[in-house]
Design goal:
Layout (H helix, E strand, L loop, with lengths): L1 H10 L2 H5 L6 E3 L2 E4 L11 E4 L4 E4 L5 E2 L1 H9 L3 H12 L15 H19 L2 H9 L4 H6 L3 E3 L5 H8 L4 H6 L3 E3 L5 E3 L4 E7 L5 E8 L11 E3 L12 E2 L1 H11 L1 E5 L2 H9 L5 E4 L6 H8 L4 E4 L5 H16 L3 E4 L8 H8 L1 H9 L2 E2 H12 L3 H18 L3 H15 L3 H9 L26 H15 L7 H12 L1 H8 L3 H15 L5 H34 L2 H20 L1
Helix pairs in contact: 1-4, 3-4, 11-14, 12-13, 14-15, 16-17, 17-18, 18-19, 20-21, 20-23, 20-24, 21-22, 21-24, 24-25
C-alpha cells in the first residue's frame, strides 16, 4: 500500500486536490482560502505546494492530501485512498493480503458488499415490476444496486457463511441478529433493499422497504441497518457518493426524504440530490453538504410531518452557514409522486421556484394566519428563531427588512424582538465545526515556539538557508534541552501549524540568518536573566542564613551571568 500512496502523491498535488473543493488564491509562497471546516469571513486556511500540506490557523486542522480528503469527505484513510486513487488513475494493491493492510473494517466492507451482491441476485420480477410502476428504470436499478430480501429466515446469513464470513462479522455488519436458540436470523426479510454507501462509494448499510404478499402489515414501512462501526445514520446521506460532484459543480444540493424520491430525482436529471436515511437532517449532514456547496434546496414531503422535518433541516443548515431555500410541493405530494404524475419538468419548476426559507415561512403563515395579530405572533414564535440562525449579516438584514414590511412595523422593533430569541444549542452557529484550535502548552513561551517553528520550516526546505544541525545546537543553548524536549513532544497538528507560521513570516525574508540570530539572542538573554533572578534570590537567602561560602559562589555566578547578558 505504501507504493500506492506514493504513486498518488506523485500524481496529485495538494493544490490540485484542495482546489477541487475550495477556491484558492496566491499568498506569497503558499495559497489560501476560507476554511471549509469552519465558518470564517477572512481566509485563514493555507496550502503549501512546496511541502504538499495544508493548515488552518483558525480551527487548527492540517495535514496532507489524504487527511484533507478524509476530513472533507467524511471517510477513513482507506476511503480517502480509494477516492484519490480513482482520481489519480492508480490501482490500489494490497500485497498478499497482509494483516497490516486489512483490518476489521475491511472485513465489514467485504461482507456488506457480498450481501449487496446477494440481494441483487434475488431481485425477482414482481419486485422489478413494482419499481417500474413507481417510475424506476432498469438503469437506475442496476446503478444503485437495488435488491430483494425474501421471506426465508436466514438466506442471506447462510450465503455469507458460505463465503467464509464469520457469524461475528455478519452481526457486526448489522445484517442479522441471534434468535432465542442462538441461530442467526436475517435483518431484512420481505423487503426491497436499497444499499447505502459512504462518500467513497463503499456499502456501509441498507434501507429496506416492506414489499410482498408475505410481508407483515405490522412491520415498519422502511427499516434501516442498525448503528454499526461503519453505519451512523446521523452522518450519512443516501446518494451523497453519487451526488457530491454535481453538488460541487452546481453549488447547491437538493434534500429529499426517501430513497424513491432520490432515485426519481436523479433520473429526472438532478444528480445533486441527497436523502436522509431514517433520521432527521443533522448538523453533521449540513456540514457534509456545506463542504461541497453554499446552498441547499429542501424538498421534503408536503404533509404536516414533512413540513416539520423541513423546518428542523433548515435550522441545522442555516446554523452550518448554508443558504436555504424550500421547494413548495402540491398538497400531500412527495417529489417521487410529482415526478411520476406530472413529469420531470414539474420537478424542475419546483426546484427553480424554491423560495428563501424566511420568505417561504412568511408566505405560509400569512396565508394561514391572515389576521394581523395572529400573523405577528406566528412570526415571533416561528420565523424569528430561523432568522437567528442565519449566518450572513447582509442576508439577516434583508430578511429583517422584509419581516418589518410585512408586519408594518419598524426594523428596530423586529431587531429588538430578535435579540430576545433564545439560542438553541442544537442549532448554535459553529455547532457543525469538526475541529477546534489545539490548546497550547502553557509552559512553552511564544518566542520559543517561533524559534522551533523556524527550525521545523528550515528542515522541510529542499535547500535550507540555515545549517539545521547548527541552529538546533544554538536553540538548545538558548532555551535549554528540557525546553526543546517539550517542543518536540507537541502534536503533529501543532508542529504543522508552527511550520506554516514560520513559512508565512520568513518566506519572503532576505535576512533569515540575521533574524534567526536575533531571535536566539533574545531567547538566550531571557534564559540568562531568569537564571540571574534565581541566583540573586538564592544569594539573599544565603546572606540571611550567614552562609558565606555559598554567598561567594552565588556572587561569582551573578558576575558571570551579568557579563554574558551584557555581551548580547
Amino acid at each position: 500500500m505504501a507504493d500506492t500512496v506514493q504513486q498518488i502523491k506523485d500524481r496529485l498535488s495538494i493544490q490540485d486536490v484542495v482546489s477541487g473543493y475550495v477556491k484558492l488564491e496566491r499568498a506569497g509562497s503558499s495559497m489560501r482560502a476560507r476554511c471549509p471546516f469552519h465558518a470564517e469571513r477572512t481566509p485563514s486556511f493555507h496550502v503549501s505546494p512546496e511541502r504538499g500540506t495544508y493548515h488552518c490557523f483558525g480551527c487548527g486542522v492540517g495535514g496532507d492530501i489524504f487527511s484533507f480528503v478524509q476530513a472533507i469527505e467524511g471517510v477513513d484513510f482507506k476511503g480517502a485512498l480509494r477516492i484519490l486513487a480513482e482520481r489519480a488513475g492508480v490501482k490500489i494493491e494490497y500485497r498478499g493480503g497482509r494483516k497490516e493492510d486489512r483490518d476489521d473494517k475491511d472485513r465489514l466492507f467485504e461482507v456488506l458488499d457480498a450481501a449487496t451482491i446477494f440481494y441483487q441476485s434475488q431481485l425477482n420480477d414482481t419486485a422489478r415490476e413494482y419499481l417500474k410502476k413507481r417510475g424506476v428504470n432498469d438503469e437506475t436499478i442496476r446503478s444503485f444496486r437495488l435488491g430483494w430480501a425474501g421471506d426465508a429466515w436466514s438466506d442471506a446469513s447462510d450465503f455469507l457463511k458460505q463465503k467464509k464470513f464469520t457469524e461475528r462479522e455478519i452481526l457486526d455488519a448489522g445484517l442479522a441478529k441471534k434468535n432465542e436458540k442462538g441461530n442467526l436470523t436475517d435483518k431484512f426479510r420481505n423487503r426491497i433493499v436499497f444499499p447505502i454507501a459512504d462518500s467513497a462509494g463503499r456499502i456501509i448499510g441498507f434501507s429496506g422497504r416492506t414489499f410482498g404478499e408475505k410481508a407483515s402489515p405490522e412491520a415498519p414501512k422502511y427499516l434501516n441497518s442498525p448503528e454499526t462501526p461503519l453505519f451512523q445514520k446521523s452522518k450519512v446521506l443516501y446518494g451523497f457518493d453519487r451526488a457530491k460532484q454535481s453538488i460541487r459543480k452546481h453549488n447547491f444540493a437538493v434534500l429529499v426524504e426517501g430513497q424513491m424520491d432520490l432515485l426519481l430525482s436523479h433520473q429526472a436529471g438532478w444528480g445533486n440530490t441527497v436523502a436522509v436515511s431514517g433520521t432527521a437532517f443533522t448538523s453533521q449532514h449540513a456540514t457534509l453538504v456545506h463542504r461541497m456547496a453554499e446552498n441547499l434546496v429542501i424538498a421534503l414531503d408536503s404533509d404536516q410531518a414533512g413540513i416539520k422535518a423541513a423546518g428542523k433541516a433548515a435550522r441545522a443548515a442555516l446554523a452550518a452557514g448554508l443558504n436555504v431555500k424550500v421547494a413548495a410541493l402540491p398538497s400531500d405530494t412527495d417529489p417521487a409522486d410529482l415526478i411520476l404524475k406530472e413529469g420531470a419538468e414539474a420537478w424542475k419548476t419546483a426546484i427553480r421556484e424554491a423560495k428563501d426559507i424566511i420568505t417561504f415561512l412568511l408566505d405560509v403563515l400569512q396565508k394561514h394566519a391572515p389576521m394581523r395579530d395572529k400573523f405577528r405572533r406566528a412570526v415571533e414564535t416561528i420565523v424569528l428563531p430561523f432568522l437567528s440562525d442565519v449566518q450572513s449579516p447582509i442576508a439577516r438584514e434583508q430578511y429583517l427588512r422584509e419581516i418589518a414590511q410585512r408586519l408594518g412595523v419598524s426594523e428596530s422593533a423586529v431587531s429588538e424582538a430578535l435579540a430576545k430569541v433564545p439560542v438553541s444549542p442544537e442549532f448554535s452557529p459553529g455547532g457543525a465545526n469538526i475541529e477546534t484550535q489545539p490548546k497550547k502548552n502553557a509552559n512553552i513561551s511564544d518566542r520559543a515556539r517561533n524559534a522551533f517553528a523556524l527550525l521545523l520550516w528550515q528542515a522541510s526546505l529542499p535547500k535550507p538557508v540555515l545549517d539545521v544541525d547548527a541552529y538546533e545546537n544554538e536553540l538548545i543553548h538558548s532555551i535549554g534541552k528540557e525546553e526543546l524536549k517539550k517542543l518536540q513532544t507537541l502534536s503533529t497538528e501543532e508542529q504543522e501549524s508552527l511550520r506554516f507560521l514560520a513559512g508565512e513570516r520568513f518566506g519572503k525574508s532576505l535576512s533569515v540568518k540575521r533574524e534567526a540570530k536575533t531571535l536566539l539572542d533574545v531567547l538566550l538573554k531571557e534564559r540568562l536573566s531568569n537564571e540571574l533572578r534565581e541566583v540573586t534570590e538564592a544569594l539573599k537567602e544565603a546572606e540571611a542564613a550567614g552562609n558565606e561560602e555559598a554567598m561567594e559562589d552565588f556572587i561569582e555566578r551573578c558576575r558571570i551571568l551579568t557579563s554574558e547578558i551584557a555581551k548580547l
